[in-house]
Amino acid sequence: MIDSRPMLQLHNLYRYFGQTRAVDNVSFSVRRGEVFGYIGPNGAGKTTSMRILATLDLPTSGDATVDGFSVVDDPDRVRLRLGFMPDNFGTYPNVNVREYLDFFARAYKFTGRERKMAVERVMDFTGLDVLAEKPTTGLSKGMKQRLCLGRTLIHDPAVLVLDEPAAGLDPRARIELRVMIRALADQGKTILISSHILTELAEICDVVGIIERGQLIVTGTVDEIQQQCRKPHNSVEVRVIGDAAPLAKWLCEQADVSELHANGSSATFTHAGDPQAEADLLRSMIEAGFRVVAFGSQEQTLEDVFMHVTKGLVQ
Amino acid sequence: MSSAAAESTLQPPAATADGLEHNRLVDRLLERLGDHLNPILVKETRQALKSKQFVITFGLLLILAWSWSLLGVAMAGTDVYYSAQGPGMFMGYFIVLAFPLLVIVPFGAFRSLTGEREDNTYELMSITGLNPRQVVSGKLGISALQMAVYLSAISPCLAFTYMLRGIDFVTIMMILVYLVLGSLGLSLLGLLAGTLVSQKHWQVIMSVGVIIGLLFAFWVGCRLCGGMVIEQQVDFFDTEFWVVNAVLLTAYLSYFALLFFASAAQLTFSSDNRTTRLRIVMVVQHFLLTAWFAWGIFAHGLESELLLAYITMAGLHWYAMGACMSSEATELSPRIKRNLPQSFLGRVFLTWFNPGPGTGYILSIAGLISAMVMGLLILPLLDMSNGLYLSPARSSNYGMLCAYSFIGLFYLMIFLGLGNILLRLARRVSQVGVVLAVLIQILLLLVGCGVPVVIQLMSPTLREMDYSLLQVTNPFWTLAHMADRWSAPLETVPLLLILGTTALVLLIVNLVGVAREVRHVRIASPRRVSEEDAVMAAEKVPAEPEKTSPWDD
After folding, report:
1. pLDDT of residue B7
2. Mean pLDDT on A240-253
3. Which residue among A84, A88, A108 sits closest to B120, beta carbon to beta carbon?
4. What is the DSSP string of A99-150?
5. Do residues A26 and A45 touch, judged by C-beta distance below 8 A?
6. How confident is the model at residue A31 (pLDDT cuts 50, 70, 90)?
7. Which of A30, B67, B362, B488 could bond A8 through an S-S bridge, CB–CB 3.0 to 4.6 Å?
8. A3 Cβ partners below 8 Å, 6+ apart?
């Protein structure tokens, strides 16, 4: 579904608040149908750049485009193509779910049957149809997130900008939200999503960008980033039948092995070799008579990459 | 149960089925009507019908109206049969109605916008397909709807006062029209106030200001109603009364349009043109003012007082508008540049409607000069047929009027010019909003007026003196001194020289900024925008009819 044309682009975007550089020369593009994960610590500039994309704020310099339209000069055209789900949003008192969505459908100039269908479609997709008559102020956090996602989707935008959509959700709600986002990506929507739950982002994102102190540090697919940030040593865990002490003694004599720890029937160590060398080590281990139950080389996760490339600095 | 009874239970009678069909038809019609209504009006009506605030206010209005009915009649006793009790009763009902209409509804309009900002709902609404004018008209619509509900609730009581004699139908209707117009105007002011502040602490301060202002308006409303009803100061058979009403209505409508566009401009995205519509309204107001004074002069003869009032009002209008326009950004966004006038005549006459403090400064000066040309040349020339104005007896008045007008023009050039320079400097260190810009302009005027007055009051030698050249920076005293004499006072020449030179210097300094703003030229729309516009234009063109015969060519 991914198209080569960029649907969303940031060109040398800057946003200063006094002396603070909230966004500092950020440039990236997201292709049609792609899911872009925007990762960064608190105060890194994610929300600011997303608000600029959503035409809620102006950049100090630089520009961003959505489907070729500038967010600075043509916000009206951008708004028709973009759905924004903020991290912090309010609901109206004395309004139920259907009325809330109906208001936004009217605001996007849907009329008559078209409007009713838009509301039904969104309620059906987000699973809010059973709560249609419930007041919005009485919804749980998870249901409010669904409602906000529904509002974001009401005009069927081609681009979705989702700021921390999974914040504060329980595991079930998070999984359901992830499924919904994946379904939207499969429909060909371009999605820019920020989240602190990196394992989830790794699963749903095609491309990831890491931002810190307003600067985009690294960008690429999860695999590319993992390759770029691969550590020279892999952590390996081995479990054998019986005591691991003889195995530890044997491992001490092997090349590329260091930081060895034995505990009961398992031993952990770091190995400086490539995957081929790891496989040779395992074969030697078995040939040496050790009855290996498990041999695991720990893969570098997005969290490891994140911790590796960011310095935890705040501004 | 008999079979006939069972049949009637299972099958609804034909009349009921017709009724249901009728209801469905009404529903469908209402829904179709609802499609054309402002979405905010629909949403907020739904909210209001469920809100406690509306129920409590409406309930209190009814209780108070009923209570006053009982109390008023009890207090009148048997007099209710023999004397006119209408005015007293009406006054009571007016107070009951005016409080929600002049205080609660406008404050509700103010809170409706500030509340959306507090609850983080405004931003979500602002990025929909609703434009700022729809937001303002939707919020205003809900105020109008509340007024209609309150009015309909109290209308039987007002009809009752008519039956009690002493008050006629025209008076009742006039007062209700004034009340509704007042309430709508105050609601619009409340909305404008709501757009001016976004931070919470400023919202609190603004809330206090709005409440005080609304209570004052309520007091004024009650006093005016008392004057009309109890003291019966109005003569409906007097032509002047209707002329004054027509003037007030014109002014009301023009200021309503100005406030409406100003509120919408405050909600408009920064890169969009927030100004041109407002400037058009300002010019229309100027023409309306001119038209009414021209009518006055032709109806009553060319009186110096009328011309003086005309030029003074034009000066005040353009000073206030110039102060607001000085808050605008000096740079034009590419979006605005796409629509700049490009023909020679367009650039000469329409450039002054483009955003920018420099173009606003020139527009203000041009506005006052046009009033001076009208007041000092055209109207006297048109009125020369009766040969009165330029007679020797009145020529000194004419000279004074000229001096007064030029001094007023110089003051406008000086204060707005100086304010513009200060604001340009202030913009280098921080952003300048409309409130801050107007405050700086007012502060400048206050300093100009206050400092020489304080010096004169504190000096034992000058204390007892009347006007002196020390007050040259005080436009109010200087112009009042000129107008008092009806002949040019001794200070006229030095005043003209001092103020004229200063005004000229400040104009030249400001022309540098004006030149920068005027230099902007139209730029082409981005390719993507042109492409989409072309597609949309093609969709609007009706499809060519298919050939149905060989002769169709």
Report:
1. 44
2. 89
3. A88
4. HHHHHHHHHTT--HHHHHHHHHHHHHHHT-GGGTTSBGGG--HHHHHHHHHH
5. yes
6. very high
7. A30
8. A31, A32, A33
A52 sits in the region (left: phi over 0; alpha: psi -120 to 50; else beta) called: alpha
What's the order of all strands across the beta sheet hosting A35-39? A82-85, A159-163, A190-194, A35-39, A207-212, A215-220
A68 and B CB contact within 8 Å: yes
Q: Cα separation of A260 and A244, whole Å?
A: 11
- pLDDT exceeds cutoff 50 at B2: no
Q: How many CB atoms sit inside 10 A of residue B301's CB?
A: 12
d(CA B134, CA B167): 40
Structure tokens at B186: 């105050």
Does the beta carbon of B535 lie under 8 angstroms from any beta carbon of chain A?
no
H or E stretch at A258? strand A257-263
Q: What is the 3-state secondary structure (H, E, C) of B429-456?
A: HCCCCHHHHHHHHHHHHHHHHHHHHHHH
- Residue type (1 letter), B104: I
Q: Is B45 on the interface with A (CB under 8 A)?
A: no
pTM: 0.84
Reading the block at residue A45, the tokens are 């500039």
Identity of residue B171: T
Task: Kindly tell me if the per-residue pLDDT of B143 is higher than 60.
Answer: yes
Question: Locate tokens 């991914």: which residue?
Answer: A2
User: How far apart, in whole angstroms, are the C-alpha atoms of residue A125 and residue A147?
Assistant: 11
* Residues A194, A46 contacting (CB under 8 angstroms): yes
A94 at interface of B, judged by CB pairs closer than 8 A: yes
Print burial letters for B180-217: b (CB count within 10 Å at least 16), e (below 16): eebbbbbbbbbbbbbbbbeeeeebeebbeebeebbeeb
The complex's ipTM works out to 0.82
| Contact call for residues B281 and B254 (beta carbons, < 8 A) | yes
In angstroms, rounded to a whole number, what is the distance separating the alpha carbons of residues B416 and B318? 10
For residue A184 the two structure tokens come to 């939207």
The total of other beta-carbon atoms located within 10 Å of residue B153's CB is: 17
Q: Which amino acid is at B433?
A: G
Cα separation, B288 vs B254, whole angstroms: 9
Decide if pLDDT at B4 tops 50. no
Tally DSSP H helices, then E strands, for chain B: 23, 0
Give which of B251, B262, B324, B256 is closest to B287, Cα–Cα: B251
For the four alpha carbons of B99, A94, B265 and A108, in that order, the dihedral sign comes to negative
Q: Specify which residues A17 forms β-bridges with.
A: A20
Residue pair B419/B342 in contact by the 8 Å Cβ criterion: no
Which residue of chain A is at minimal alpha-carbon distance from B332?
A73
Task: Kindly determine whether residue A56 and residue B126, on different chains, have CB atoms separated by under 8 Å.
Answer: yes
Query: Do the Cβ atoms of B86 and B72 come closer than 8 Å?
Result: no
Give pLDDT, residue B521.
Answer: 87
| Residue among B213, B401, B237 at smallest CA distance from B307 | B401
CB contact under 8 A, B47 and A94: yes
CB atoms within 10 A of CB A47: 21
pLDDT at residue B11 is higher than 70: no
Q: What is the mean pLDDT of residues B217-227?
A: 92
- Between CA B235 and CA B223 the distance in angstroms is 17
Q: Is pLDDT of B459 > 90?
A: no
DSSP tag of B484: H
Q: Which one-letter DSSP state was computed for residue B391? A: S
* A73 closest CB neighbour out of B121, B127, B271: B271
Domains of chain A and any CATH numbers: 6-227 (3.40.50.300), 234-299 (3.30.70.2470)
* pLDDT exceeds cutoff 60 at B437: yes
Q: What is the dihedral of CA B243, B245, B249, B255, to 10 degrees?
A: 100
